[in-house]
Amino acid sequence: MVIGGGIAGATAGYHLARYGRVLLVEMEQVPGHHSTGRSAALFSEYYGGPAVRALTRASRDFLADPPAGFAAHPLLTPRGTLSLCPPGDEDLFDAYLRDGAEVDPPAREIDLAEVPGICPIVRVDRFRRAMLKPATRDVDVDALHQGYLRGIRAAGGTIARLTRVRSLRRERDRWRVDTDGGEVTARTVVNAAGAWADEIAEAASVRPVGLTPLRRTAFLVDAPPGLDVTGWPMVADVGGTFYLKPESGHLLVSPVDAAPCPPGDARPDDLDVALGAARVEEATTLAIRRIRHAWAGLRTAAPDDVPVIGPDPDAPGFLWLAGLSGYGVQTAPAAGALLAALATAQPPPVDPTPHSPARLTGG
């Protein structure tokens, strides 16, 4: 049984389906409503700490060449990222440049004089250095998510929507799970409930791992008149105060906020939208006249910002796939494969040690 139908639960169910029948329960009508459906939709092997980058590397082949019939068109399209260094962030810039050397093709520093040819609205005089990350790609998140859900059904699994888990208890070698649709028994429960994952653990009398839901705001603005933004890279500062990227002929902007908030339907804060607009106007010549649409999503992080994947040390048959933070989409193939390998005693695709729930529970 998999609890949660976002990208974490979907990839878990997809990879587990080859070993047994999967029931995925989702409390919303639309799986992925709170996080997956509000993703920035980027695949970047430059992004995150060492454990995250290892998961991302291990996900590349699946995303670049998914199984036959998984998706009707490619999941990845080229994008690239232009990373800018404001005064005072040179050490951070150097650290990202070193980490980016591991990627193929590697991140490389470029002369500031090259920046206008890449993104003509950048105010070059506001920055000290610039870096290009050519391997960054856009992800078709919906195609990836729906491919996983179709795969679960094709393997004989069931997806139960509008089904909330009320309680869980362990009896002998099985879990008995009380849901809105009645009681379900399962040998294995996968906790992929996103912002609600610690609540699911508590309902099962399992020690929480200390997850924090964080609100991330994004909004769409008009592209500069007369400019085709389609081929522009994502543009961001290395300090993580803003990013912008092309989106359906417009520009998607975020202030890269990460405000702790309770699990729920996240809403954009007007102050965060205004802050994001001001930061972009400071860094570029873009004049933001109106906000076409604003939204917010949840990215739920563990205390060390490393995804929690694997069996709980104190609860037999209870596995975690949670705390994916902002890395859920780009790490989904390897995260699901790792979870399935640990559930079935198969060789893992990456070192599972950094992801073990035991590091957070003391087990």
UniProtKB/TrEMBL annotation:
GO terms for molecular function: oxidoreductase activity. One of its GO terms (cellular component) is cytoplasm. Gene3D superfamilies: D-Amino Acid Oxidase, subunit A, domain 2, FAD/NAD(P)-binding domain. It comes from the Bacteria. Residues 2-342 form the FAD dependent oxidoreductase domain. The keyword Cell membrane does not apply. PANTHER family: FAD-DEPENDENT OXIDOREDUCTASE DOMAIN-CONTAINING PROTEIN 1, SARCOSINE DEHYDROGENASE-RELATED. This is Glycine/D-amino acid oxidase. It comes from Micromonospora pallida.
